[in-house]
Every structure is written in structure tokens, then in C-alpha cells.
User: Fold these one by one.
Assistant:
Number 1:
Amino acid sequence: MSTLAASHSRFDTGIYHGKLGMWVFLASEIMFFTGFFGAFIVLRNMNIEVFTQSAHHLDKVVATINTAVLITSSLTMALAHLALEKGNEAKFRLFLTLTIVCAFGFLGIKSYEYATKFSHDIYPWTNTFYASYFTMTGFHALHVIGGLIPMTWMLGKSLIKGYPQEMHHRVETLGLYWHFVDLVWIFLFPTLYLIF
């Protein structure tokens, strides 16, 4: 553990404050999304025919591509942290840029999916399946945007003044959040697109 990270660690846990705070935050996020999945299961069992018919109108190919894009971003995020930890800022910038590009790519593909649905007069109020679909994917997209903001700030800081190697634990903490966002999508993808 770096000197800076160690200076911000708790005596009882030995974990960097920000990292501990992120784990607590992610625990609350798990409960948040569990509520969505629980409601989805109940609504599905009450409207199985509507859910089955509606799910067949979703584009599985586009969603599969989007899943690959997001999983790739998880890999590049881990590589960005590793590069900074080893003091290679050029690679840190490269992998962080790739992560940002993938995140924008994911949002672009999701926007295309939404636009396609709207062009076919499919909206969140069309039926309970689409209400669930737009709510769950919409909140997930907000989490992607929430990850993009600190990523862009870190990249900007690196380009302007350089990003200190000693602060790699902040990138690691952001990486935890980003892997969680990816993990939520890995559950959303089969739930919405594949099980019907």
C-alpha cells in the first residue's frame, strides 16, 4: 500500500477510507437494484404473457454488442489502474480513454435502442414490461454517467498536470464502482433480453 493510501487508512481495518466508503455505497446499491429485480419478478409472474410478447421486441443482437462493450470497459479500467500503480502514466491515459470511449459507446447504443422503441410508439407507459425495462435500464444508464464524470476528471487532470502515482488508490476505488456497474448490466441483460 502506498504511503498516501496508508495515511488515509483506518487503524482497525487497514483499508483506505475511500475504498471502505465505496464498499458501503455499493452495498446500498445492491439493495437498490435488488428492489428492481424483485419488483420485476413479481410483475412478470402477474403478467407473464405481456412480458413474453414484449420481450420479443427487444433487439438481442444490439444488446449483446452493448454487453461486450461494457465488459471491455471493465478490462480497460483494471488495466488503467494497473498502469498507474506501476507508474506508467501514458498507458494509464490510454486505458482510461478507452474506458471512457466504451462508456460513451454503451450510452450511444442504449440511446439507439430507446430511439428505435420510441419510433415504434413504445414508451415506458405502454405496459408493465416496458415500464420495468425503461426504469431498470434508465437507472443503470444514470450509473454509467455517474462513473463517466470522475473518469473524465481524472483523465483531464492527467493531461493537464499529471496524475500522481501515489493516488492510484482513487482509480482503484473508481474501478470498484465501474465493475459494479458492469455486474449490474450482466444481470440485467439476461433478465430483460434472454429469459423469455
Number 2:
Amino acid sequence: MSKNRKYIVATRPSILAFTQTQQTVALLKEKNPDFEFEIIKFSTHGDKVSDKPLTEFGGTGVFVKELENAILQGKADFAIHSLKDVPSLQPEELLLASFPKRENPQDVVLTKNNLSIEEIKEDCIIGTGSPRRIVQIAAIKPKATFKDLRGNIDTRIKKLNEEQYDAIIIAAAGLLRLGKTIPENAFLPVEKCLPAIGQGTIVLECKKDNEELIKLIRTINHTETEIAAKAERSFMTTIGGGCKFPLAAYAVVKNDFIYLRAMFGNHKTNKIIRLSDKADMNMAEELGKYLAEKIKEEAKNVGIDFLTEN
């Protein structure tokens, strides 16, 4: 491996994306002190169009494509993404090569007076544009109204403090990476609100034929996080769809087994299917495919038209 080489790292311009990229690069520097890294920001379609609900974008990968193009065009050596933004399929030349240790994957409910989800009024206004969150929170607060919520974390919290919402739903991982304090009663148990596929996980993507770089970035790979990501993404790939659909999966590795919880719902009818199972941790992708096929079958049984009814 060539020493003293500088690598160009692609990231998005948002405060959270840049912060988590800096944190990831710090891990790389700690493991590889002989190398230099330069972070370059690339605006994505999702960054440029901030006044439109994500569910109205025509396709997936709205926070990823420009970073992948930077790698393919030689403007960057690798990119750092939030895994939940990465579509099921990557360009043929690229590889999701390294998965650092996952941050807390839970969602949190923030309110102006630090009330829990159970304590806020029944006819509350909740800020989220995520169909996954809507269908699960509606099971807790059936009289709630849901309003779209976009912008960076500080913008979202500002809207809450301006009383545009009674509560907002945000991923804990983003708040924690920015050093924000989260009230203990704000965390939603995964049994009630299953997180987005890959939520809390960072992934490093590069060209699949760059063996030297893959070896370097895998020095910060976390095996259990990678196995969990494979199970969750296998489930997503088999089901199809993206953030437009109420879809969730969360996997953990314990005692050489992979445990996977999965959810599919319809945010118009509030129907939900939840399934879980376990397998040997070497069978992570097979477990994801198995639960996806099982949910498809169950959806037919309860009358959910899979991707057209949502």
C-alpha cells in the first residue's frame, strides 16, 4: 500500500452529513496515520430541492447519485453516506465496502415541553413525511394529523419551537452525532416504531476494483453492523420500493445469530404487518429474503396491494 497518499472523500453539504463524514475520516486517520484525506462537498438533487416532500421525488437515491458520479468521474476516491439513503442497487462499478459501528437506530419524538408520545394530546400535529413513521405512530396516536417536515435538524427543531407542530419525529443517530441532548422519554422502542432500513449506519462506497482503497477503508469496518446491514438490505431488495412506502427492518447480531424484525404497512389504511425471525449470522441475506417473501404472502392474505395501494 502506497504511504502518504491523499484520498478525496465525497460528502453532502448538510451539517449532519459533513459532521458524520469528519467523524468517519477521524476514525480512518486513527487507523491509518500515514494517509491524508480531503473532504469535498457535492450537492445532491435532494439537497437542492428542499421544499418538496421526499415521497414526491421520482426515484430513489436523491441524496446519493451525485456522490456516486463523483467517484465514477474520478472527482473523489470514495463517498460517505447514511446507509438509509442508499438505494437497493448500486452502479455496477461501485461497492459498499465498509460499515463502521452503527449509532443508535431508534427514532425519537421531540416535543416543546419534553412530553412523551403518550403524554401529548390525542389530536396532535406531528411533523414527519415518512410513510414508515406515519403508519406506526398512527397506531399509538390514531387521532394525530401528520404534516411533512424537511430541513436540517436545527431547522426542524426551530419549527417545533415555533409551534408549527406539537411533536416532530427525528432519527436519534443524527442528533447524537451532532452532540444534541435527547430526553430519555423521547426514544421510541423498536417494538413500536421499527427504524428505517440502515438507519444509524454509515457506509463507505468506492470502486470495486480499487483493492488498495477497499483494504484501507475496511480498517474501520464493524462486522456485526455489516451483517445487520446485509440482512436489512436483502429484505429491502426482495420487497422493492423505497422511502415512498411504509417499510422497515432492523437486525441485530447476538451469540452468532442474526435476529431480524420487519414491517410493511399502508399509511392510507393504517394496516401493518410485522414479522420477525432469526438465523445463523452467516445466513443474513437469506433471512432477509425469507422474511420479505413471507411478508408478501401475508400482505396478500390481509388484502394489502403491495406497492400500488400506497
Number 3:
Amino acid sequence: MTPVLDRRTFLKGLGVVTVAAACGGAATPSPTATTAVATATAAPTAAPVTGTISVYSALNQSTNDQFFAAFKAAYPGVSIDLLPLAAAGELQTRITAEKASPKADIFIGGSSEFHDPLGKQGLLEAYISPNAKDIAAQFKEPTGLWTGWYTGIFGFISNNDRLTKEIAGKKPATWDDLLDPAWKGKLILPSPTLTGGGYIFIATQIFRFNKDEDKAMAYMKSLHANIAQYIPTSPGALTLIDQGQFVGCPNWSHDILTEKTKGNPVDLTVPADTGFEVGAISIIKGTKNLAAAKALVDWSITKEAGDLNVKLSNRGSTRTDVAAAPGSPGLTSVKLVNYDRQWATDNKTRLLQKWQQTVGL
């Protein structure tokens, strides 16, 4: 049994799916990896690349399906074994646990806060893509350990009917508005320990209080009194608001906009002084197919991939030549906190422990 077969067998045991569809098709679980034959829609790298790569993805299913199908159309010689988990923290933990024998080649999606620590632990392969010249320095790690390819702004989703009946239709203009006792038991939050959104929400409060951690933790403790549940994934939290099981939830603006355009009875608000993420892609050190892994990084930061991701997810792009989705908030159209991403990344473990001690979880 070859090392590649060992890895694939392992991934299948985790519920991994093989992306075998042509552009526009859906990911289909398959017992064996296959190579799709499709017309290239983007210029591949100079040297043809082939083989299979295993991808750990924090993107949601609909984005995974079409994004990787489009990549396969551009690189028909490459097949992808995909492990989708819409919780970047779980993927970071898995990659760390597998460091002695890496099972994946690529980690895609999730805020850079989850990629950067892996790089510092020596678990990522440094690669500066030729296409990274089109990405501003603030959106990429300087040595190529990770590259940012999208942005997301933290907002607030509310269920229209319950908001009207139970909160008098009052949407939060600031994050402090969520401390109103009227919200008690009606809010949920993506888990700060499992999701990028949950942690960025905590970091946002710290920057909102000018890095006064005690004030920020006092806010989080007061908010905890109004939180009914911490949800393991950000998409899972959105579904609960769609269904009217709870009234509101801090969450990603692009995902909220997507839920709204599906016809769900929800609305998007972006409170003042909010935070944002830089969604990243990185190559896992020990990859069995470095050429194909580089190809996926190269393609993910093309204009074509940026346009597709905006269309599929309503996220922003780190490329200036990619237009924003209609109705989506942009980094220059909302009031952001002065988000020190490197500080937030370097202090993530300590701050999460402090939050857990503060709220008693």
C-alpha cells in the first residue's frame, strides 16, 4: 500500500469526499479518487501538474462544491480529496495532532489566526505564489506561510419576526446594545474556542476597549448572561436564527447576506466598531504533492477564483480588481476597530483561556 493510499484511506474514514465533478457540479462522495476531464477556464502553471491532493476546508458546502469544481476545470490532472469542516479551530487542532504524519496537503478557509500558529510551529510549507504580487502585504504572511484570499466582516443576524415581537424591532447599533436584559436567553454566539468568528468577536471587544483586557472580559461576562448557547460552527448558528429558534447572533456579514438572499426571514446589521477576518490558504508541511498544492494556492488567488468566491459566498476579496457582492458591506463602508491581527493571533490561546475562566466554561 502506497503512502498516498494510506492517506486517502484515512481520509475516507473521516467522511472525506472526492471532488470529481466538472465546473459547476457538486462534490460527490466516492470510494476512489477520480480525475475529471474538463475545459480549463484559468491559465495553469507552466508545468502540468497531476495527482491527488487532500484538502482540509473550513468553507461551507456550497462554496466547496463549486470552488473546487472550478479548480479542477483549470487543472484537470489534479483530483481533490476533501475534508469539509466549517470550524477552522477543529482543522487547526487536527493538523497539529497529525504533525508527525500529515494527512492533508492544503488548509483552506478560516481566518489567518488559525493558519499563523501552524506556521510558527513549523507545520506549514512556505510558498510565495507568483500571483501573490496582486495581494497587499496586510493580507499575507511575508515568507509565504499563508496567503489571504478573502475578507469577512463581523455583523449581526436577527430573525425578523422574533425581533419585532420580543425586542421591539430594535437592532444593535453597537455591540453594547446586546447587554440589554431584553436579549437574555435570545442570543447565541459561534463558539470562541472552535470557530474563527467566535474568537474574532472576543478580540474585537479587546480592541474596542483599546486593549484593556479587563474591560473586554467584563463585557464578555455580561454578554454571557444573555447568551443561550455557544454553537460549534458559524453556519450552524445561522440556521438556528433562520428557523427562529433564537432571535439574534453575531456572525459573518457575508454569510448572513447569503441566508437573507435565500429567502430566510432574517436581516443583517453591522454594529459600529466591528472586526474582520482575512481568510487564508496554506500548504501543510510534508505534503505528498507539492506541485499540485502550489497550483491550488496559485489558482485560489487569481481574479477568476476571487470573482467566483464573491459570487458563491458574498465575501470580500483581497484582490482590488474583484468587485464586491451587491449589498455587501466593505472594509471602507463600515466602522472597524483598529484590529491588530498579529497581536490577536499571538495571544489567541491565552485570551481564550482567560475568557473561559471569566465566563466559567
